[in-house]
Design goal:
- The complex is a heterodimer of chains A (718) and B (456).
- Chain A has 718 residues and is mainly alpha-helical.
- Chain A has 32 helices and 4 strands.
- Chain A folds into 4 domains: 66 residues, no CATH class; 150 residues, no CATH class; 169 residues, no CATH class; 122 residues.
- Chain A has a 3-stranded antiparallel beta sheet with strand order 2-3-4, with no helix packed on it.
- In chain A, helix 4 packs antiparallel against helix 6, helix 11 runs parallel beside helix 13 and helix 20 runs antiparallel to helix 21.
- Chain B has 4 helices and 25 strands.
- Classes of the chains: A mainly alpha (718), B mainly beta (456).
- The interface between A and B is large, with 118 and 115 residues.
Chain lengths: 718, 456
């Protein structure tokens, strides 16, 4: 599946083989990785060593990726096999608990085999699906059916050799290998068989004997006996007799699956061999002169067939050579005929000899994977598999590690096991498609500490897409969470990545604040326990008052007010920032009453804000100026005498501190609101002072002052 | 390798930097045209659309950096006009612009606008690199300029972004440095001559840029700028680069390279003391101590330079142009990639001191230990070694960059190639593809746009 290693970008910048022109034109190359997927932005910055000084005209920016992102059937394949992967991870988690470790070893192997077989079956399905696609559909496939076929052959061979059925680990493997070979590499072809069976005298056809030999070597009893029966019409008496004797011999060859114990199988095989030997005697008794018909030396051919059955290695080799069979066919025939008790662990030695003479095709990764698996070298198999498809290497390594076929200890240098390395490589391939972030993270999370932290990086960078719909503030907060944000949170929770979760919440809060979704922003700040961040959101809300006035301000505060209640009940250490939130809420209440002309309540609000000391000093100027209108209200005296005194004390503090140069602490917001200087702000406050003086005068005129005031709430005692 | 996109005519002059935002959904670009553009990807079809475009500086812009999104949508730009500017994207309708220096609104119907929040003017040379610190250190940025000074700024008020305190300002070349022999692996004892000559470096772009924008020479505190011959080319010959250590555990640590030498210093910042050099990564350490370097025996790439200054290769042939610190992602060591004028891409492996091993030098499997001798014997030491070196570019390397997990490295050079590097399962770094800008010999062979499996 490897795409070409080198890419020339389009449109090209220089002619082929004239790369020096790039530097001559004052440019060089540069690239930058996208965190979104595996792509790179490539551009041509100035080469500092050049004489060029701008004026290069319009410049392009290119984007390239080392991998095509998974599409169409490939995506389906990836997501469907990930379910098996998840089941496998789950199984490993459960079985790795101490009480389960040894007691259920057989069960474990059985489960592993079942899951491995699931992979095999799935690749098979995918192969069939992709192969059956119509011509038009073919072009929409990212990978051809043949690619999935290679995965299928490799995985199924792996299962045959390394994940045998329980109890068969130490049993002869020949028959199983033959079954694998016949399933994936069909020889002789059906067409040849059809052609020969249509002939009256098939032995006259030059493909007849090769067909028969191959059918024998592949253990295809039906096909072989069919044509042996056809020889009953052959003119030679000898051949007619011999072929009819051969038929029961072929069909009676013992196969392991038909025996309950290997001992019985071995016994039967030996007895069968005796019969083959008898056949050889018969064969040698045929006079030299009768061994040919007019087309062939049939005797030689028949002798080869008997030779195969006798398990003569030189005959098997010769036949394979004549038929153009590869190392696989030779190795498998070896295991069925030459050494019918050949075990898995002995196979590598045999194969090593065979590939010396008949090597696998080094350009064919599938063949190399097969050869490495036959050769008992899982590491090499993984290496070739990774070139075939990172999916194959990752999933095979996963099973290999669980079976102890590859080292479970991390390589000291990298902290990664072999399995983890291939798994991460696959996860990185998945990362070429940003939409597959869940799978990318899931695969990474299975790879130790390094994998976990790689997954962190991926999770942190999942775009949150907080396209919050405009709606009235104060609605159910969870109602507007985006799916993505919820998913990221859930996954962080599942894998206990609290720091990542908090960071994601902080980012979400920041984004929501930009979108003026202050209520949501605050709930994310508190979810991240980011109290300074919460303070900044409140500041931003308060800014709304400065920038766009009380109306918008109260609207936004109504969005954040519910969170105050939530935060008040939760007793986390929220500190000073919660006071700022309280202030914003109280101040909004004040403006709400002002807009409803509920002046008496508004006055009380204002006083209690001062009284409870929730107002930041920087806001005092603004608050005092707000008092101005209330103080000058003609219809009634809205402040009690002590309340008015409180206002006066605050006002005096502002004036005194301003004289000592800290006026900005008290007047900053007023300055911003009025776009004025501190001096102008102080002038404005002089008006408040005057209003207060008049107010006290009015209080005095009325006398005791008690009647006009309504005692309320926490009115300070006089 | 496949081509996945193209922005045609992104800028009207050479593009000097492109930088993805945290998610890779936006791209900030800048160029000699003194403008910054912010592009947004259309995820449905992978095309890029310009979102904002404004003139940001009075000279070419050298680098851009995005702040972590926890702090908002913020970009810092470094320029040859000797300033760093901090830009914030705000909602379009905000009327008040605290500094009264709002950028011109982006072309088109954009509803967002970037506002200049701060202009940092301390540099006495062109600012060559800027990078925001990892988020856990707060809203901070580091810069390196051609006056060889590393400057670290800290934002004092995140709400307004207006106040930036110059938290550190140090001459990188004068930082207390580790004694020689410096870190190197045995394989690099023999320096290699490369093709990395500077074609026509006589009056370079940057030299001209600086001459144009130059105020009377700043009273360089070190005096070394003025004292050096060939000052005019210094801007062109040198390399200035920095990269933050992404991990929190070790505190604020940076890799910095400055000037014409090929050494990279690993600098630790601390609020309680002056910055210190933890380690110097020098592929070709002087064979002689700096004090006796006058006989030009200084090793390797600096050979043949007349009047070579102490411990510094004045030819600039080994100058470091780019440094990238890989995210550590759970590894027990750090990876730093450097690219230089010597045409080499190097991957350094840094092993922090083991907790239990304070005070003991940590040799890594027979590699030479780096002696942070300035720190005295009592402190734990860092060690470093080159784990990979590539000379495939055969010409100056201008840029190195890691992917987000530190598993894939890209390098780009004057050979018109972007090359990718990746560690094998046996942890050996190997080429992993390349991208060129030449006319393809046979486009169909080179570009496998559909990603169909190659024939087999």
């Amino acid at each position: 599946m490897t795409t070409s290693k080198h890419l020339n970008l389009v449109p090209p910048v220089v002619e082929a083989d004239h790369v020096e022109e790039l530097v001559q034109s004052g440019r060089t190359t540069a690239a930058c990785f996208s965190p979104y997927n595996k792509s790179l932005a490539v551009f041509l910055p100035p080469n500092p060593g050049s004489q060029l000084q701008g004026g290069s005209g319009e410049q392009d920016i290119y984007f390239a990726s080392s991998e095509a992102q998974p599409s169409s059937e490939r995506r389906l394949f990836i997501s469907d096999t990930s379910i098996i992967f998840a089941a496998f991870q789950n199984f490993l988690r459960v079985s790795s608990t101490p009480e389960n470790e040894w007691s259920q070893r057989d069960d474990s192997v059985r489960t592993i085999r079942k899951l491995a077989t699931d992979y095999v079956n799935f690749t098979k399905e995918c192969w069939i699906h992709a192969s059956q696609a119509t011509k038009e559909n073919q072009s929409s496939l990212q990978f051809t059916g043949d690619h999935y076929r290679t995965l299928y052959t490799c995985l199924s061979l792996f299962v045959v050799l390394y994940v045998p059925d329980s109890g068969l680990e130490d049993a002869p493997v020949g028959d199983e290998l033959m079954e694998w070979l016949n399933m994936h590499f069909i020889e002789p072809s059906t067409e040849e068989g059809d052609h020969l069976s249509s002939l009256e005298k098939p032995w006259e056809d030059e493909t007849f004997w090769p067909y028969l030999l191959r059918a024998t070597m592949r253990g295809l009893v039906k096909a072989a006996t069919f044509f042996l029966e056809a020889l009953s019409r052959h003119p030679s008496n000898y051949l007619r007799r011999l072929s009819s004797q051969l038929i029961p011999l072929l069909s009676d060859q013992p196969h392991l699956q038909n025996f309950a114990a290997e001992r019985d199988f071995a016994h039967a095989s030996r007895r069968w061999r005796e019969k083959v030997k008898a056949m050889r005697v018969e064969l040698t008794n045929v006079p030299e002169s009768d061994r040919r018909d007019e087309y062939e030396n049939w005797w030689d051919r028949l002798s080869s067939i008997v030779g195969i059955l006798e398990g003569r290695t030189e005959v098997i080799e010769k036949v394979c050579d004549e038929l153009g069979a590869d190392w696989k066919e030779l190795s498998v025939a070896w295991g069925v005929f030459a050494d019918f008790r050949l075990r898995r662990q002995d196979l590598p030695d045999v194969v090593a000899q065979i590939v010396d003479d008949v090597p696998p095709d080094p350009t064919d990764m599938e063949d190399m994977v097969h050869a490495s698996l036959f050769g008992g070298d899982p590491m090499k198999a993984l290496s070739y598999a990774s070139q075939l498809d990172p999916w194959l290497a990752a999933h095979m390594a996963d099973i290999m590690q669980s079976l102890g076929l590859i080292d479970r200890e991390p390589v000291e240098d990298t902290g990664l096991t072999v399995r983890d390395s291939y798994m991460l490589a696959y996860a990185e391939y998945l990362h070429s498609d940003a939409a597959l972030w869940r799978l990318t993270a899931a695969y990474m999370f299975s790879c130790g500490e390094v994998g976990v932290q790689c997954a962190d990086e991926v999770l942190l960078r999942v775009p949150l897409r907080l396209g919050v719909p405009q709606q009235s503030a104060g609605e159910d907060v969870t109602g507007v969470l985006t799916d993505t944000l919820r998913d990221v949170n859930a996954i962080c929770f599942e894998y206990q990545r609290e720091e990542v979760r908090r960071s994601v919440c902080k980012i979400a809060a920041q984004e929501l604040m930009q979108k003026k979704e202050y209520g949501l922003a605050i709930s994310y700040c508190s979810s991240a326990e980011d109290w300074p961040g919460l303070g900044r959101v409140v500041d931003r809300v308060l800014d709304e008052y400065i920038i766009s006035g009380p109306e918008n301000f109260t609207k936004y505060v109504s969005g954040i007010a519910p969170s105050l209640q939530v935060l008040n009940t939760a007793s986390a250490a929220q500190g000073v920032f919660i006071y700022r939130l309280m202030f914003a809420v109280r101040y909004a209440e004040f403006h709400q009453r002002m807009s409803c002309q509920d002046l008496q309540e508004a006055a009380w609000d204002l006083v209690s804000i001062f009284q409870e000391e929730t107002a930041p000093k920087s806001w005092w100027g603004v608050l005092l100026l707000d008092a101005l209108g209330l103080l000058e209200h003609k219809a009634a005296l809205l402040f009690s005498y002590p309340s008015a005194c409180l206002l006066l004390r605050r006002l005096e503090e502002v004036f005194t501190r301003s004289q000592h140069g800290s006026g900005d602490d008290y007047l900053r917001m007023l300055n911003r609101k009025a776009h004025s200087t501190p001096e102008a702000a102080l002038n404005q406050l002089q008006a408040v002072r005057l209003a207060l003086a008049r107010y006290f005068a009015r209080c005095t005129m009325i006398g005791t002052g008690g009647k006009q005031f309504m005692g309320r709430r926490s009115e300070i005692p006089a | 390798m496949i081509q996945t996109g193209l922005i045609q005519s992104a800028h009207n002059d050479l593009v000097t930097d492109v930088s993805y935002d945290f998610y890779g959904l936006r791209l900030a670009t800048c160029g000699l045209d003194q403008r910054i553009k912010v592009w947004q990807i259309d995820e449905t079809n992978g095309t890029w659309r310009v979102e904002d475009d404004w003139k940001a500086h009075d000279a070419a812009i050298s680098r851009l950096s995005w702040a972590h999104p926890e702090f908002g949508t913020i970009i810092a730009s470094a320029s040859f006009d000797r300033t760093i500017k901090v830009w914030e994207q705000t909602a379009g309708e905000i009327a008040a612009q605290p500094n009264g220096s709002a950028s011109s609104p982006a072309g088109g119907s954009s509803s967002t606008r970037w506002v200049e929040r701060a202009s940092l003017v301390d540099a006495r040379g062109t600012v060559r690199a800027v990078e925001f610190a990892p988020r856990h250190f707060g809203l901070k940025l580091a810069s390196i300029s051609s006056d060889n000074h590393l400057r670290v700024y800290e934002c004092l008020e995140q709400t307004s972004l207006a106040t930036w305190q110059l938290a550190e300002e140090v001459d990188v070349l004068r930082l207390p440095s580790s004694s020689s022999p410096s870190s190197h692996s045995v394989a690099f004892a023999t320096p290699t001559q490369t093709h990395a000559t500077l074609e026509g470096a006589s009056a370079s772009l940057v030299a001209q840029a600086i001459q144009q924008s130059q105020a009377p020479p700043a009273p360089a505190p070190s005096g070394q700028l003025a004292a050096r011959p060939g000052l005019g080319n210094r801007e062109a010959d040198g390399g200035w680069a920095l990269a933050w250590c992404k991990e929190r555990y070790w505190g604020e640590v940076l890799a910095v390279g400055a000037g014409t030498g090929g050494a990279v210093k690993i600098v630790q910042l601390s609020s309680s003391r002056r910055p210190t050099t933890l380690l110097t990564l020098d592929p070709a350490p002087p064979l002689l101590l700096p004090s006796s370097a006058s006989d030009s025996g200084a090793a390797g790439a600096s050979g043949g330079t007349p009047g070579g200054a102490a411990a510094e290769d004045t030819s600039g042939r080994s100058a470091i142009t780019s440094i990238a610190w890989a995210p550590s992602c759970g590894r027990s060591y750090h990876l730093i990639a450097t690219g230089g004028r010597d045409g080499r891409v190097r991957i350094w492996k840094l092993a922090p001191p083991a907790d239990s091993d304070a005070g003991l030098g940590l040799g890594l499997g027979g590699e030479m230990d780096v002696d942070g001798s300035e720190l005295g014997g009592g402190e734990p030491r860092w060690s470093g070694s080159v784990v990979a070196e590539f000379d495939q570019h055969k010409s100056a390397v201008g840029r190195v960059e890691w992917n987000i997990t530190g598993t894939l490295l890209s390098s780009a050079g004057n050979d018109g190639r972007v090359r990718l590097w990746k560690a094998s399962v046996g942890n050996v770094w190997k080429p992993a593809g390349s991208i060129g800008v030449e006319q393809g010999e046979d486009a169909a062979d080179d570009v496998d746009m559909d990603g169909h499996p190659a024939s087999n």
